[in-house]
From TrEMBL:
SUPFAM superfamilies, per the entry: UDP-Glycosyltransferase/glycogen phosphorylase
Name of the coding gene: waaF
Cellular component terms (Gene Ontology): cytosol
Matches recorded under Pfam families: Glyco_transf_9
EC number(s) per entry: 2.4.99.24
Entry-linked InterPro entries: Glyco_trans_9, LPS_LOS_Heptosyltrfase, RfaF
Record's protein name: lipopolysaccharide heptosyltransferase II
Lineage: Bacteria, Bacteria division TA06
Broad class of enzyme this protein falls into: transferase
């Protein structure tokens, strides 16, 4: 199969994008001489540029200039000046398949969801139980139709060798003077059914500061900078960097952390992608589906009768899957990865 120009419509969320990297690497390995273009949501642009083998990243403004059907068609036709031999469509939406169609790609590979099969030349049925296997496997199974290995591998992100702003932050935290830096990501854009209570993170931070010669950094977006912090006092030694870092800077800092404690959110996958051990706390979602990949990672999950429900807000109001996770359990998990 002689392919010279491949376009991949990537997942829109940071964590999902990281979990698609093994499939991207498989494409690059199978077609080493092809130009690999990734069409990415603006929120994942920085991460896409850290993937070895990706030749070009084109930003798609899904909620802005490219939102209407007319502008989607215009954008799709302008993705590449050269003919596209293959378009691989990871998202399950109708509009993503429409992009592949109007890009002019000769072959268009994707799952036949949302009645979009007629837009695809190569289509695969999505199993009803797809949330019972890892999301990364769903992506690799798609490209396996082309001959790519469907063996699950660890996603890898290549961070810059130098980042002056991040280096200044690490220096202020005492990094390099036998002082550990522990990351925490206590937020989740998805909703409260993914968020371990902020007071628990505060208690965990106090325990870690007592037991280790460490500093603690909070990671998150600008929208997270005030979320759940108003009524929670954070101990001295905790530095809140939510909304103060680019994704590239965050990845650089995460690589230098000894571990990250996180809800089921995108930054956990970034940490795993740069090789930092992750303790991930799951609530309404399933670790079978979206846990970070890597041998050093630990999942904390207290399954209750109604989980996983995948709801943004607990329909019963008790948030038992999160409330049942004790600080001592998470502390034990952190100590496990630090041994």
């Amino acid at each position: 199969m002689d392919l010279r120009n491949i376009m991949v419509r990537s997942p829109n969320w940071i964590g999902d994008f990281v979990l698609s990297i093994p499939a991207l690497k498989g494409l690059e390995s199978l077609f080493p001489h092809a130009k690999l273009t990734v069409v990415a949501h603006r929120r994942v642009k920085d991460i896409a540029q850290m993937v070895e083998g990706v030749d070009r990243v084109v930003v798609f403004d899904k909620e802005g200039a490219d939102r209407s059907i007319k502008n989607l068609i215009r954008f799709s036709r302008g993705i590449s000046e050269e003919p596209i031999d293959l378009s691989v469509i990871f998202p399950l939406s109708f509009s993503s398949a429409l992009m592949g169609y109007f890009s002019g790609a000769r072959r268009r590979l994707g799952y036949s969801t949302e009645m979009r099969g007629f837009l695809l030349t190569d289509k695969i049925r999505l199993p009803l139980e797809y949330r019972e296997r890892h999301l990364s496997q769903t992506y690799t199974n798609l490209v396996a139709k082309l001959g790519v290995s469907d063996e699950l591998s660890t996603p890898e992100l290549n961070v810059p060798e130098v980042c002056e702003k991040a280096d200044r932050i690490m220096e202020s935290l005492g990094y390099g003077e036998n002082r550990k830096v522990v990351g925490m990501a206590p937020h989740a854009t998805f909703g409260p059914a993914k968020r371990w209570p902020m007071e628990n993170y505060s208690s965990l931070a106090k325990n870690l500061l007592k037991r280790y010669n460490c500093s603690i950094v909070l990671f998150g977006s600008a929208d997270d900078s005030t979320l759940n912090l108003e009524d929670t006092s954070l101990p001295d030694g905790v530095v809140d960097l939510c909304g103060k870092l680019t994704l590239t800077e965050a990845a650089y800092l995460l690589k230098r952390c000894v571990c990250l404690v996180s809800n089921d959110t995108g930054i956990a996958h970034v940490a795993a992608g740069v090789g930092t051990p992750v303790v991930s706390i799951f609530g309404s979602t399933s670790p079978e589906w979206t846990s970070p990949i890597g041998n050093k990672n630990v999942v904390v999950y207290e399954k209750v009768e109604c989980s996983p429900c995948f709801d943004r807000v607990c329909r019963f109001g008790h948030y038992g899957c999160l409330q049942n996770v004790g600080t001592d359990v998470v502390l034990d998990a952190v100590e496990e990865v630090l041994r």
